[in-house]
Automatic annotation (TrEMBL):
Gene Ontology MF annotations: DNA binding
Protein name per Swiss-Prot or TrEMBL: HTH luxR-type domain-containing protein
Keywords recorded for this protein, A-Z: DNA-binding, Transcription, Transcription regulation
Stretch forming the signal peptide: none
Highest rank taxon of the organism: Bacteria
Organism: Kribbella qitaiheensis
HTH luxR-type domain ranges (all copies): 259-324
One record GO biological process: regulation of DNA-templated transcription
Pfam family of the protein (one): GerE
Length: 324
């Protein structure tokens, strides 16, 4: 942030420790990753609500992590967002929003969760950024809010953004590891690299349900003589349910079979256009969005269809967006 003078020694130490912890979160434990981020921010400033969301396309957000006092846990969700709300603003401008910019006007236009009778007194909402060949791309948003007024400082906002980068590095490393493992399993067949089929997803979901069933079965068969042990077992079961819910929500962001391999065949511009085809934009609308001519769009679309081995635009969306 312009003019930022650096953290106090105490906050700097908190951030260093959190970054170290985030780096060592077990791959796949995404809820624990987001939770560590939220808990750390709570040691720097009050946090009554916190969420992490990723853009599915120009209409939907996948929200794998939501925290709100006093319930503490809210199930992950899949939300539509409008063109004038917070999500659209963050995606459009790719910069942080702070409550003081408009006294919460933009914030209060958005989706409500938790105690809907109370409005936040302060908030910071930041873009989650991924570096691509075209520069920084907004892939999601994260928000921390409190019912208290005027408590978030420049320190708070800067710390929030630094830890966002730590979280995104951990997620990128996890995806890279998954891709490497798949390449090894397929003996280097690049066509299968990093792709996930519907069968893979169903199998993974089946394993999650089986882990829950085994836990419940264990409790049913136990003698239940130790209240403390029972309480701990039930707490573990609840945490397993919460983790699985978050992971299932994030499946909505998984490409269809061979989608990543298919995208790998496209140029950066063709990839952009393929994504816009998936949200039902016409050639004219794509041309306007990308500031190029309509004939140029038609040429790119023809090449995309040929590379995908399909004849209709709808088939492009079917291959890249199997879940809607």
């Amino acid at each position: 942030m312009p003019g930022f003078q650096g953290f106090s020694p105490q906050v700097a130490e908190i951030i260093r420790n959190a970054d170290r912890t985030i780096r060592y979160v077990v791959p796949g434990e995404r809820r624990r990753l987001y939770n560590q981020w939220r808990v750390t921010m709570g040691t720097i400033a009050p946090v009554d609500s916190f969420y992490v969301a990723f853009f599915r396309d120009d209409r939907y957000l996948v929200v794998p992590y939501i925290f709100d006092e006093p319930q503490e846990y809210e199930p992950p969700s899949f939300q539509m967002y409008g063109s004038e709300g917070m999500a659209a603003w963050i995606r459009r401008y790719a910069k942080p929003y702070v409550y003081g910019m408009d006294n919460g006007s933009l914030l209060n236009k958005g989706h409500s969760f938790g105690d809907e009778e109370r409005l936040s007194g302060d908030a910071i909402v930041i873009p989650l950024l991924r570096t691509s060949s075209d520069g920084q791309v907004v892939i999601g948003i994260a928000s921390m809010q409190t019912y208290r007024s005027n408590v978030y400082t420049e320190d708070t906002a800067h710390a929030f953004q630094i830890l966002a980068r730590s979280v995104l590095v951990a997620l990128a490393r996890e995806l890279e590891d998954e891709g490497h493992q798949r390449m090894l399993l397929t003996a280097g067949e690049m066509a299968s690299d990093s792709s996930v089929s519907v069968a893979d997803i169903i199998e993974d979901f089946g394993h999650k349900l089986e882990s829950l069933r085994l836990k419940i079965d264990m409790l049913i068969k136990s003698e239940l003589l130790n209240p403390e042990r029972l309480r701990q077992d039930l707490t573990d079961l609840r945490e397993l349910c919460e983790r699985n819910q978050s992971e299932v929500a994030e499946l909505l962001m998984v490409p269809s079979l061979d989608a990543r391999a298919l995208l790998g065949k496209l140029t950066p511009r063709e990839t952009e256009i393929a994504e816009l085809i998936c949200i039902d934009l016409t050639n004219e609308e794509i041309a306007s969005r990308l500031s190029i001519s309509e004939p140029t769009v038609k040429t790119h679309v023809t090449r995309i269809l040929k590379k995908f081995g399909v004849r209709q635009r709808s088939a492009v969306a079917a291959k890249l967006r199997p879940f809607g």
